Every structure is written in C-alpha cells, then in structure tokens.
Amino acid sequence: MGTDLTRLSAAALADKLTAKEVSSVEATQAHLDRIADVDHAVHAFLQVSGEAALAAAADVDARRAAGESLHALAGVPIAVKDVVVTKGLETTAGSKILQGWIPPYDATLVEKLKAAGLPILGKTNMDEFAMGSSTEHSAYGNTHNPWDLDRIPGGSGGGSAAAVAAYEAPLAIGTDTGGSIRQPAAVTGTVGVKPTYGGVSRYGLIALASSLDQAGPVTRTVLDSALLHELIGGHDPRDSTSIDEPLPALVAAAQQGATADLTGVRVGVIRELQGEGYQPGVLARFEESLELLRGAGAQIVEVSCPHFTYALAAYYLILPAEASSNLAKFDGMRFGLRVVPEDNPTAERVMSATRGQGFGDEVKRRIILGTYALSAGYYDAYYGSAQKVRTLIQRDFTAAFESADVLVSPTAPTTAFKLGEKLDDPLAMYLNDVATIPANLAGVPGLSLPSGLSDDGLPVGFQVLAPAKADDRLYRVGAALEALLENEWGGPLLLKAPELEVAR
Fold first, then answer.
1. SS3 375
2. Which band of pLDDT confidence, cut at 50, 70 and 90, is reported for residue 1?
3. 396: exposed, middle or buried (C-beta count within 10 Å: 0-12, 13-18, 19+)?
4. 303-313 mean pLDDT
5. Which helix (DSSP H) or strand (DSSP E) does residue 408 occupy?
6. pLDDT digits (tens, 9 = 90+) for 408-446
7. Does residue 156 have a cis bond before it (omega within 30 degrees)?
8. Which of 9, 23, 81, 289 is catalytic?
9. Full DSSP string of 78-112
C-alpha cells in the first residue's frame, strides 16, 4: 500500500481521502516510510517531523470521521523548504549561522497549510539563504537528483524538487528569487510555479532579496500546483507587498486546460531565450511542445524582448545588494550561531567571528558584491543602473503581452549537470538562471512543466510566463501541454525515471 500511495498525485490522493478509501495517517506513514527508505541517498530533507505529521494526520482523520467540511487537500502530506519559518521546527535556511534555531511563529503560508489540515513531513534542503542553482551550497551537504544521483537537483530549492521527484512527498513548498522553483522543477521532471510577486505572502520567509522573493508550489502535476497555489495564495495584511485582490480561479483554469483546447490562445516564443548556449536536446523538446500547442489550436507568434540580454547582469547586482542588507541581522547577537573569540571578545569581534564561521563562501561572495554595489561612489554606477535595466525588462514584458497571452521558453538551457562540475565557476553556475530571472525582475508569474527527456535521458523543462495577476493563464496552457505530452508518453514523465538505487 505504501508504494501505491506515494505514487499518486496529490489530487488523486485527496480523492481517496475524501472517499475514506484511505486515511491520512496511512498516507502520511507511507511517505515517512519512503523517506526512511531513500532519503539517505537523495538527502532531500534536513529535518523530518514524523511525530508531528502523524498527529496532524490523525486530527484530520478524526475531523473527517465527524463529518466536518474540510479543504480539498486535507490530509495530503507536504514538505516545506527550510527558508520558510515553522513554529517549533528547526529552520536554518541551509546555513550554519541558524543551526538549532527554533522559530516562535509560523509563516503565513504555513498557518494556511496547518489550518487546511496538510501534515508537514519536514523541512527540505536548499542552497544557503537560497543563494545557488544546484543545492551544492547548503551547509548540510548536497541533495542528489533522483534521476541520477551523481547530478544536481537544481537550486536553490533542490530539496523540495527532489522530494517530490523521489516520491517522498506529493507536494512541496519552494521559493523562487531568480528561478529557484522553476529550474529545479525542470531538471527533476516536476512542476514548479512562481506566482505573481505579492500573490503569496512573504511573511515568515527568511528574506534573500525582498523585491524578488516569492513562495510557490512544487508538485508532480499542473492541477496539483493549482490546488496548492489557491490554498497558500491571497492577501496578507502582515506583508506590505501582498496584493489586496482575490486570486484568479486557478483550479478551474487547470481543469479547463486539461481538455487540451487552446483555440484562440496566443503563445509568444521569446526570441532571446533560445539558441546559443542551449543544449540541442532542450531545444528539440521545446520545438516539439510548440507543435503540440499549435495542434491544440494555439496561435504561435515570435516576440522580442531585447533587454532580456541584460537581465542576468542586472539581477546579480540587485540580488546581492538586497541580500547584503537583509543578512546584516545575522550578527551573533540576537539569535542563531554565536562565536566568541578567546581574546578580547568585543561586540565587533564577535560579529566578525560569527559571520566568518556561520556563512559559506557563496553567501560571503554575494554580501561583498552587494555591499560594494551599494557603497558611496558606486551606487549610481551599479545598483542604480541595474534598477533602470529592470524597468526596461518590465517594459519588454508589457510590449510582448500586447501580442501574446502567454510567453514561452525552455526553463533552463541544459539538463542537470554533474555534482561539482560548476562549483568552482560561479559565472557558469549563474548562467543556469538566464531564462528564469526576467520573470522575477518584472514580478510576473511563471510555470515550468516537464516536456520530455533530452538526448542524455534527463528531464527538460518548458516555461510558461503570464502577465502579473494573470496566473490562471499559466495553468490553462500548462495543463493543456501536460495533457498533450502525457498522451504522447502514455502517462507522466516521472514514470520513465529509473528506480532509485539506494543500497545502504
């Protein structure tokens, strides 16, 4: 029973729970057993909260037995990225500087998960403070891609994507600052969604770059993402950037899309997000997906977003600048790690020693870069100029959406690379986010879904972008392409994944 339950989509598992064919305790235990069986090889989780998850599951079962009206996902277990604050459960953001920190409150989205009755299986591994594209910058070791344990699962949210791909969790929460939900989804054969900026509350997210960060769903199907997105989204007065408007009908859009009828939908292919630097197999799967969309009635048009060429450079000035400010609070004085020098332990020396030992190399690199970009004499030349480029990118999106309802591109230029392959070359690592970064700079929503396997037998992602607050378009087009592809494959792409070799 355990294996069968872990292979179900969240929607299918929810149906079984609602019909009382299975209990939440049984479903949660099945996933905890799967974690126990394979996570020593995958390392998707930093903490597993089995006792609390089973208690939450038992509570849902009791409420369901009493005839209470429950959320559609009640009883479906979920994993949460370790950058999201969870009351009573250690939250480290993948950093030694927060090792052992037990938050006294829940993030808004965690409150919503608990209120809806989703048992939280544990916290997933990530690049330290979400800085990275491979989950190799975690202070607690690498996460491995379930398709090939010698390869990266993407980043920074590789733990959440790997947990879903390895059938350790049917749902997970990720965060996306420059592609950290969508790029891991692409390389693990899962579905990942970055909502419109402000569409999901950031209250209780440990900030990396406040104008870019956004939490969202990581799942195995488009419908599952829609269900989870509707649950965690909506206005939150505790987040000053939260959109004070109702969400569009995301689940209805996914259900409509599953009919694979896209008659009249204009799909814009972004000229600048393909070609040189993109793996041939990635481009081949992208072109095949476009043909399927055309066959479903979509009108395929080419659009140009000329300033996307500068998005990577602008992003890697804006993000480090905001990170250097946000991470100043980790000083060894108030919470987390404190390193006290033996001789003359002044406040300044304690801060220096704590930050020196508590932060990893990539975090230090970006803090230094960001502090420099914000310094007197350089602010206008670097940070100020990057913000001007950001405005031009937003204008590119506005112009493109005049001739297209959604924009599409490959999610990542390559499939998953080998662990350690790019670790010593930060610039090569940064290039993995070239197709995902523009959406964060503009605040528009984006979805990645699997579009097949490249010539190396590894998953490829297809990215759909929509105008701000039009997240429902992602789900309609994404669900349509998913249905068309699964008809070609004879089922979900993850069924093609090799069984994990997890001998202890």
1. coil
2. very low
3. buried
4. 97
5. strand 406-410
6. 999 999 999 999 999 989 888 999 999 999 999 999 999
7. yes
8. 81
9. EEEETTB-BTTB---TT-GGGTT---SS--HHHHH
Total residues found in the chain within this entry: 504
Q: How far is CA 241 from the centre of its chain?
A: 19
Tokens of 501: 């070799």
- What tens digit of pLDDT does each residue of 243-276 get? 999 999 999 999 999 999 999 999 999 999 998 8
The span from the CA of 480 to the CA of 352, in Å, is 53
What does DSSP say about strands 215-219 and 171-175: parallel, antiparallel, or unpaired?
A: antiparallel
Q: Tell me, rounded to whole angstroms, the distance of Cα 156 from its chain centroid.
A: 8
Candidates 49, 134, 156, 451; catalytic one: 156
What is the CATH code for 2-260+445-496? Answer: 3.90.1300.10
Task: Give residue 132's identity as a one-letter amino acid code.
Answer: G
Q: What is the pLDDT of residues 131-188, one digit of tens each?
A: 999 999 999 999 999 999 999 999 999 999 999 999 999 999 999 999 999 999 999 9
How confident is residue 504, by pLDDT bands cut at 50, 70 and 90? low
The pair of structure tokens assigned to 35 is 């974690």
Amino acid at 457: G
Residue ranges per domain, the chain? 2-260+445-496
Core vs surface per residue 193-228: b (16+ CB within 10 A) or e:
bbbbbbbbbbbbbbbbbebbbbbbbbbbbbbbbbbb
How far is the C-alpha of 156 from the C-alpha of 182, rounded, in Å? 10
Report the distance separating Cα 29 and Cα 23, nearest Å.
Answer: 10
| CA proximity to 53, closest of 61, 42, 43 | 61
* Residue 2 confidence (pLDDT): 43
Beta strand 78-81 with 120-124 is: parallel
On average, the pLDDT of the chain sits at 95
Residue 70 has pLDDT above 50, yes or no: yes
Minimum mean pLDDT among 112-126, 278-292, 425-439, 487-501: which range? Answer: 487-501
C-beta separation of 174 from 192 below 8 A = yes
Determine whether 180 is an active site residue: yes
Q: Helix 250-257 vs helix 222-232: angle between axes, to the nearest 10 degrees?
A: 170
96 is catalytic: no
Compute the distance between CA of residue 370 and CA of residue 118 in angstroms, rounded to an integer. Answer: 38
Instruction: Return the residue matching tokens 């394979």.
Output: 38
Distance CA 221, CA 142 (A): 26
| Catalytic-role residue among 180, 448, 451, 454 | 180
The Cα 35–Cα 45 span in angstroms is 8
Alpha-helical runs (H) found in 125-200: 158-165, 182-188
AA identity, residue 253? A
In the annotation, is 242 catalytic?
no
Q: Name which of 461, 107, 404, 149 is nearest 281 in CA terms.
A: 461
* pLDDT for the residue 450: 98
